[in-house]
# Entry
Amino acid sequence: MNSSNRRQGGSTTALKAFRALEAVAGSREKVTARYVGEQLGIDKVSAYRMLVTLEQAGYVTRDEASKKYGLSYKVISLSRNLLAENEVSRMVQDFMREVSAETLETLHYSVLDGFEAVLVYRVKGTQLVNVDFQIGDRSPLHCTAIGKAMLAYQDQDFFRRFMETEPQPRTAETLTDPDELHAELERIRARGFAIDDKEFAENLRCVAVPVFGAGGHVTSGLAISGPDSRFSRSYLMKLKDPMLRAAEELSRRFGGID
# Structure
């Protein structure tokens, strides 16, 4: 246990167990103990013990034939209250439906969670060719439109701590230099929206707008993503207008603006 964990009363073992759960959740396929060990930087035996504990707690299941592990449906119970239908979620999704009806595109609403954006609501559009992000998907802050839209409105201490995580490039267009990224965030604040022009994936473009909460803080936002074959930069400029209107009204409802 390091000094930081001792000061905060944390448990290194418990933290590794959660990291093991994240490793299982991060794969679309069932995984082996060896895979989890590689993800956590621990030996296979230690990873196996973590997985056995998670299995006993009911959060992962083990396929006896392949000896691989996957998530159990018990994980859903952890988030049911967080994502439960309530007045706020209905209001957010109503605005999303309005924008989707106007643009015909799929709308995503994400929230800030640590140094990542987490997709919590989705309203599907009618376009046949779109990007199929799923509820619960997590994305980096520095190379996605929604991530940058939220990162732009955090304080300097948050930005400094985020850069200390050494954000990695996803494509040749990804900004990882602190000065370049800082300049990009200034442009986002000036114009009120963010664009991902093939920064997260080679064939993907996105546009996102921040939603202001109480006290003017930004911890959520709206985004539309699509393939570059259909999403030109000029098309992103058209999409931003109804998104900005929806975000402004949501921000007003949340007490973020007058």
